[in-house]
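Below is a complete specimen:
___
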Amino acid sequence: MWPQAEPVAAHLRSTLISDGDAQTRPQLSQLNSRLGQSFPGERLFVERITEFAAPIAGLAGVVIGFAMVRMRRLELASARHSGVTPATQTLILLGEALVPALVSVLVTAATVMLVTGLPGTLDPAALRGLSARVCLTLVPALLLGVITGALTTREKHLFRYFKART
């Protein structure tokens, strides 16, 4: 068991049968003397495969938010040409992006709660915290991408967008 605790050692000693003489005393020692001298938990946690999950989620959020707006640049430039202000358009785009983002966060939270509630899950609070970090990085990054996409869409490029459409 790691970390070693004295109450556990006392419980182990209580299971011994006292048939031996006073000279032979039981000794508690490590079964494998080569491995397990120290617990490298912190190092393993820092070097885990999901170490960069939150920054990657942030980058993905910015790219997805930007792409969501840029795919509609002709429509957005046309709306601006019709008199919609950039601030109003940005607020509308943020609302449109926030709804699916919040739905995905709720679905993710429910899935994480379900999976971490299964028997045998080690440290469910840490897993929930890590998934919350990813969600709390993704949503603002998505909104930042939407704002960036809205700010880079120009009414004066309406005809360029029209010519470039597929």
Observations:
- The chain has a mean pLDDT of 86.
